[in-house]
Amino acid sequence: MKVLVLGGTGATGQLVVDQALAAGHWVRALVRSPEKLSGRAGSLEVVAGQATDPHDVGEAMSGVDAVISTLGATKGSVMTDATRAILAGAAVSGVRRIVVLSSFLVVRDRLSGPAGFMSKLAMDEMVRDKAAAEELLRASGLEWTIAHAVRLSNGRATGRATALPDSATLRARSTITRTDVAAWLLAALDDRATFARAVAIAG
């Protein structure tokens, strides 16, 4: 599969790139700092550009089968702007499969007390931006998947990435490794059970 990765120089994005290459996918990464992805073996094309720029994203989406976004931002409207760019790119390129990493903090009606406090106070601007971006994606008519990952940690793969029931309470102490998140995002590309679904994942 030909996959465009947005956020490919981030902590989780680099793992998505590496795992996709190891699995034999052809990968294009749209990044601001191409040198951060140098030296990797496999079918990797690194393109310099902005994930919030509709022209850059549209060009990068040309010829790919799917998009995985691991973009993250704590301030501003980066996620909303990037989603608008993805939707504009989809209209031009015809790409329909979009997998997006988001945060469990967006799902406020399912949060435990401490997690709810984090969402409402400590990270309110980030949550508003992610929520607005998700609404755009839900209304797009594309074949999207949103992964609401619990708190991310570093470490080796455990193989325990689990899709939680829609009724599950999401807790601040729950964690999942970035390595497992990357594997879940890649597996979701072909998993039609995740199409047009927001899925909470934990380790």
TrEMBL record:
Pfam families: NAD_binding_10. InterPro entries: NAD(P)-bd_dom, NAD(P)-bd_dom_sf. Residues 7-191 form the NAD(P)-binding domain. PANTHER family: FLAVIN REDUCTASE-RELATED (PTHR15020), UPF0659 PROTEIN YMR090W (PTHR15020:SF50). This is NAD(P)-binding oxidoreductase.
